[in-house]
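Hey, can you fold this one?
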Amino acid sequence: MIFTFCYFKFPDSESLHATILPNRIEDMESLIASYLVDNGGASLKSHIEYLKECLRALESPSTYEADISSNSYSAEIRNDGVRVSFLYDEVQSIKISRTKLQDITKAWILFLEREPIAGYIENMHIA
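Sure. Predicted structure:
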């Protein structure tokens, strides 16, 4: 899996917005990118804190089951895997290993904590 972290600007705005572009538009990569970007309208600071809470659950060896869902995406930890689906179409779901989602989440948090730079792009490769 390859993800591209980048900033974009709406035509009528001066603000930069962070997003994740999956390398391929496949169910797994698209759902993961959408889940991580889904802030539910919260501030960047609140979204980073939410992602850090999710990361703590993913990293904790004592967490066998946990709900780390976002506003529009279900994400449920079950043992060594995480099931992610769009809440309004749960038929379309994927299962990803905890460690892979952990690695992607860590990289996304680090990207969000940096000062936004127009045109900056960062690629994340997950085997």
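The longest helix spans residues 44-59. Let me know if you want another pass with a different chain boundary.
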